[in-house]
Amino acid sequence: MLVYGKNPMFHLMNRIDTREDKYEIAMKISIDDGIEKIISLAEEYDGVIIGDISAGFRNQLVKLCYANNIRSYTVPKISDILLRSSVELNIFDSPLYLSRNFDGLALDQAFVKRAMDIVIASLMLVVSSPFFVVIAALIKGTDHGPVFYTQKRLTKGGKIFSIYKFRTMIVNAESKSGPVKAGERDARVLPVGRFLRATRLDELPQLLNIIKGDMSLVGPRPERPELAKVITKNIPEFTYRLKVKAGLTGYAQIYGRYCTTSYDKLKLDLTYIRKYSIWLDLQLILMTIKVLFMRESTDGFEDGKWEDPALKG
């Protein structure tokens, strides 16, 4: 049973529907129907998914589920993710949770991460060099335009850098539209560009960004300054992503989708930042190889069917 607030959680329901072999939403109910009614109905189901509802109602519902031995799944808020890595202190007669400020990686962590970036990115660049030749020929054969495309992006501390990509759109694609996300049936995308985007091969030139030090292998994906400004206006916590370098792949790329909302991607990125370790980086790099072959991971914004609330000016 799914309990929702003002947000009906359609995107979550759609994702759960793709795993109907394991999960099924048998009923959805608004928090406005009342806690008592929800609890009385919840006993008929295997569990309750607690959606994006107010903290007061959510806490009350969690405690009632616990008291009635009902399994509950809670959609976390950003504050929940920040608290997850807290240290429990028992210096008084009541537990305290210490949530430390995150000002970046420790010196030893930063050194090992940078060394790993240089070694792995250099090896990947050598191994993938034949792909560079083939892809360049395909792009040139399509419209004789430039092979590479550069774009301003944000990395650690809000620093702006030029990201390298294989060009997948027509030349001057944003001359009329301005900075917008690509749609699933976007007419600006070249035929070969659709293939490159679906396989993420258009991102290969970013290995050069990693070697230069603009990016890391793993981290939050770098956002465009224009879009980041709009998102931050709607989600002030979006700036928290800038505590680490932007990455070629990351937690949001593994567990999210191209059409995952900015708010949910932020929660995934913050989960990575709070859980960071070299072993987690290695795990995410290996998992990226699997994700490359999953069509749903590169699902685009279906025109007229989906929009990111955070991108509304």
Descriptive labels:
alpha/beta; 4-stranded parallel sheet; Bacterial sugar transferase domain-containing protein; transmembrane; phosphotransferase activity, for other substituted phosphate groups; EPS_sugar_tfrase
Order of strands across the main sheet = 2-1-3-4
Q: How much of the sequence is in beta strands?
A: 5-15%
Provide a count of the helices. 12
Label the overall shape: globular
Question: What about the largest sheet?
Answer: 4 strands, parallel
Architecture overview:
With 313 residues, this protein is α/β, with parallel strands linked by helices. It has two domains: 2-75, no CATH class; 107-311, no CATH class. It is built from twelve helices and ten strands. The chain has helices at residues 10-17, 35-42, 55-67, 78-84, 107-127, 129-143, 191-199, 206-212, 225-234, 251-255, 262-275, 278-291; strands spanning 2-4, 28-30, 47-50, 71-74, 87-89, 96-98, 148-154, 160-166, 216-218, 247-249. Helix 4 packs parallel to helix 11 and helix 5 packs antiparallel against helix 8 (206-212). The relative contact order is 0.10. Mean pLDDT is 87; it is low at 301-305. Keywords: Membrane, Transferase, Transmembrane, Transmembrane helix. This is Bacterial sugar transferase domain-containing protein.
